[in-house]
Amino acid sequence: MSPRVITALQQARDSVKAATSGFYGQLRIALSDGIPPSRFSTCLALCRQDEPETEIRLFEVPPAQQIKGRHDDLYDVGFARSDDPGDGIVAEAAWNDSLMVAVPARHPLLTYKRIPLEEVLRYPLVLGDPRACEGYVRQIERVLRQVDQEPLIAERVASDDLMLALAG
After folding, report:
1. Could you give the C-alpha distances from 158 to 46, 61, 63, in angstroms and in order?
2. Which of 79, 96, 129 is the last residue in one of the domains?
3. 92, 104, 113, 138 - which has most CB atoms within 10 Å?
4. Measuring CA to CA, which residue among 67, 126, 80 is closest to residue 102?
5. Does residue 89 belong to any structural domain of this protein?
6. What distance in Å separates the CA atoms of residue 78 and residue 66, rounded to the nearest whole number?
7. Residue range of the domain that includes 21
8. pLDDT per position in the chain (168 positions), as tens?
9. Are residues 70 and 10 in the same domain?
């Protein structure tokens, strides 16, 4: 594991530890935007190891509901791929993932070591469904708008797994 990932996980674990001290042994965590299970499960395992007496309750909700729930004290902490948490909410990166392009094994884009965005936009894209991963989709759309070219969207899907299956 890279030092950045270890540091991010430690910060997330410390945040959860701090939150549990004021919540009488229960931590209510809201999850949005299709948080990668491998990332979150590592953090969750560390939290359970450090605070075995704390009941951890998970809620899968859309980003807007997560933000409202934080304001209404329904959730103690939230995880999302969104970089825009809204007014009155403090967001910190628990980890950083690079954006990637998934293509079939013999795709012409594989001739590039680092694929230019203009080249990516020459092909139909499979992107996330805004209803399932709203914040993440907004981030991807901001990246795509860096180029003066409309993307050709072949499909919108609710999960990374289906996205990868369609790219193959």
Report:
1. 28, 13, 14
2. 79
3. 138
4. 126
5. no
6. 7
7. 3-79
8. 455 555 555 666 666 666 555 545 788 888 887 776 677 788 888 888 888 888 888 898 888 888 888 888 899 888 887 766 667 777 777 777 777 888 988 999 999 999 999 999 999 999 988 887 887 888 888 889 999 889 999 999 888 888 888 887
9. yes
